[in-house]
Each structure stands twice: as structure tokens, then as C-alpha cells.
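ok trying this again, last paste got cut off
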Amino acid sequence: MSQLLYNLFIKIYVISLNIAALFNPKAKKWIDGRRTVFQLLEQEKFNNPIWFHCASVGEFEQGYPLLSKLQEKNKESDFIITFFSPSGYEFIQKKYPELKIFYLPIDGKRNAEKFIEIVQPSAAYFIKYEFWLYYLKTLHTKQIPTFLVSGIFRNEQIFFTWYGGLHRQMLSYFSYLFVQTHESKKLLNEIGITHCGVFGDTRTDRVLALKKTILEFDIINEFCGDCKVFIAGSVWQTDHNILQKIIEKLPSNWKIILVPHEPDHYDASEFGKDITLYTHYTGPNHKILVVDTIGKLAFLYRKAHLAYIGGGYGKGIHNMLEAIVYNIPVLIGPKFKKFNEAVELINLGAAFCTESTDFEKTMDKLLKNKEFYNSVCEKSAKYISANTNVSERIMVFLETHKPFENT
């Protein structure tokens, strides 16, 4: 892709969103949120700011363990968090009011230079897969240390195609790329990107920290009682067919908790009438509880004996590690191959694809064979144990190697 095509793509994308904003509330928030971003930035006074950019909530949670460690080491610094999506911006702004949170202005030479001139970041961290040409180029030109955190790369991505020259150039602008897998490092090395290393996924640190958080949900505790619990997290309507089949296999004394990815656009009526909503809870004498609010899922998995992670019958599965950290078997849909942890967990035998030929037998074994169930739980624990302290290792590397000095 040439720079001309990149600029054209950005313009078409913005025009499309302006049109969509006429009838789509999320697109309207995306457009409206960026109208005043420079005005808001200019009203601030930043002290030695460190900039984190995330696509949405999931990427923020992924980067948070490293952010926390940097906060501990840089107590006088402001931390600037930018988001691409409205959902990330709105949720994190409410959850972390102490952080300075903004929308990222749309990528372009003028916007990137203006943003960086106002903020004057001492370092920049992009989480997982955010690549914006002009921001990266400007950071590189101004010799501001810039890092990719928990990057993941696959052979089919544009970086590794004959027409991916511009995107390969973007990678060269990073001071260092902390990637999740050896395969990612190998692919980068093959295109001449050698300033990278395998450190793993910072989400493991995050889910372990959340696991230690003590929270009591009176409604959840009352609903579950002493029953075994099946939790389906981040579910969409496209997950319903397989959920029906799973629920039919569950013993009659199990309780079921459904947590939709988008509560405002979720219909659970096809599961029958024995349902109560979290926000309109009417007591424990129901089979199914629908948690129609956001921000609770990561903590709810501690009540589960078996979990299903949604999205695998749509664009792709959501965060499996939030459930795996509780050492329980996890079920997922077929669209998981872009997610390294899913592939590894299935190969390990700690997670199971609902489209596999032996899934029916696997479900029977999980529900009826205690020895098999326990062996799966042990494999989950082993996986988490082998993938910890990612953020700490990144911090040690930053302090000892100082990779940005040669950029």
C-alpha cells in the first residue's frame, strides 16, 4: 500500500463514519468525540507525560499491568490514554477518573504533529495491533521512544505481503516490539525487523491481578447458592445455537449466567421464560441470570465450574484468559485461530472447540468424569503459571537494554 492509498483509505473511512453517524449512535460518538479533542488537550498541562494508545477496552486491560508498573516508577508523570473506539473511551473514563483520557485524532500528518506537539510525550506505548503511519513517523522523527506491547503477528497480515511496504515501514518506526510468540518474532525477522523480542501476553498479568481482587456480588451469590454454575461470557446472538445445545446437556441443578457483549442489544428470550435480569433481579428461583450491565464479567468467572467464551461464531472469540485464570474448562466457537492463547489452550487440552467432531463426547466427560474434569483444570493452572510476570520482564528489559537509544 502506498502513502497515497493510505491517505485515501483514511478519508473514505471518515466519510463513511460521518454518513453512518446519521443513524448509528456509536458512529456519531466516534465523530463527535473527535471534534473537540485538540481543544481539550490544549486545556491540560502535562507533566513529563507517558502516552498509551489502545483500540478499546480489551487493549486497555491488556496494557494496564505495564501501565501500573510504569506509574510506580514514574510517580511524577502524567499518563495520557487515547482510544480509537467510543466504548473504550467512555468505559475507562468512568472506571479510571485519575487518568487523562482522550480520543485519538484521526491519523494524518497535521493531526499527528499537532497532537505530539501539544502532549510532548516522553514515551509512547501502542497496545497489540494499533498501527498509525503519521503518529509513528512523527514519534520516530522526534526520537520519542515508542513501543508495541503484546504484539501478535500472522503470516496473512499485510506486513508480510508484496504490497505491504508502507506497513513494514511503520514497524521500523518502533523503538522496540514486545511480541507474544516466537512465530511473531520469526515473521518480523524475515522482513528485516530485528528490534523485537518474545515476552508473552500482558493480559495474563491482568487477569491474575483481577483474580486477587476481593469483590462480593450479593445478587450473584444468592442466585448461585450451592449450585454448580455455567457462565457464558461476552456472548452474541450468533452464539445462541451452540449455547442451546450446551444448556440442554447441563444437569438440571446447574445455574446459568449469560453475560452479553453488548447488553443494550441483546435478546435472551429464546432461552425461555425462566430468566431474571441482573438489573431487575427477582430472586434465585430462576434457571438463568442475564447480567445486563458491563464491567463484571472478569470477576464473575470465579463462580463458574464451566465457561463458554462468546464471539467464536462471529468475528472471533473474546478474552479466554479471564476464565482460564480460575482453572476451569473453557468452551469456544470455531473462529479462534487468530488468537494465540486459544490455539495453545486447545492444544494443551485446557479448552475445547464446540465445532470439533468429538465435542459431544468431551461435554459428557466434563460433566460426568471427575478425573477428566480435574485434569483439564490442572492444565489451565499450568498454562497460567507458565505465562506470568510479562510486564515485569518488559520493565527489566526497558531499564537494562534501553533499546530506544539507538533509534
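PB: full thing came through this time. The mean pLDDT is 91.
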